[in-house]
Write a structure and sequence with these properties.
- This protein is rod-shaped.
- By secondary structure, it is mainly beta.
- It has 1 helix and 10 strands; from the N terminus they run αββββββββββ.
- A hairpin with a 2-residue loop joins strand 4 and strand 5.
Length: 195
């Protein structure tokens, strides 16, 4: 009637295990290559587009103003960027003169989001720790060159958050933009900024 089959020997079991292990290692290598080339999380790109001082006043060698900064945040990842620990600091002569938390939010994959931050800065003396105001030519505005006192402030925009790739891998990402802003003391105009 029919031939009887012999049970598998130890050699066939060993060969099957080696073949299965080789296949799993191959799949793991391919998955790693795809993850690190296509889905590797990248830090978001921060660009400061403009800085303005909508309100500015100088009284008794003390300055008081409202600071506005407009920035662009680009998410280059293939997953949503969730930011939650973000802030904007304003410094003058190494001392913090303004601070603002940026509300938590999400930026879709491959998208760009525009952000605006405006806050009032408390009064502070124009000359801090013996550093006098700088004198000299500034950036040429439309109505001609300005020569006169200017002050410099530094803004630090920091964004931190996470990118979750394939709903499984979570990666912490950070971005930072440091800008030096030159301000005319006579009228509060922004002479220029460099990030």
């Amino acid at each position: 009637m029919g031939k009887s089959h012999k049970p598998p020997t130890g050699r066939t079991n060993l060969a099957s295990c080696i073949l299965a292990a080789t296949f799993l290692i191959f799949l793991l290598i391919v998955a790693s290559i795809v993850y690190f080339t296509v889905f590797k999380p990248k830090d978001p790109n921060l660009t400061v587009n403009a800085v303005q001082l909508p309100a500015f006043s100088v009284t008794n060698s003390t300055v008081n103003f409202t600071f506005s900064q407009y920035a662009t945040v680009n998410n280059p990842n293939r997953a949503v960027f969730t930011h939650y620990d973000s802030s904007l600091q304003l410094l003058h002569a190494g001392n913090q003169i303004g601070f603002m938390f940026i509300p938590a939010g999400k930026i879709a994959a491959g998208r760009t989001q525009y952000m605006a931050a405006t806050f009032s800065v408390k009064s502070f003396p124009l000359s801090v720790s013996g550093q006098p105001l700088t004198m000299g030519p500034a950036v040429l505005p439309i109505d001609g060159p300005r020569v006169g006192p200017s002050m410099e402030v530094e803004s630090r925009l920091e964004m931190a958050g996470r990118v979750r790739v394939l709903h499984f891998f979570t990666h912490h990402v950070e971005a930072r933009a440091d800008c030096r802003v030159s301000i005319s003391v006579s009228d509060g105009s922004v002479l220029g900024f460099h990030c």
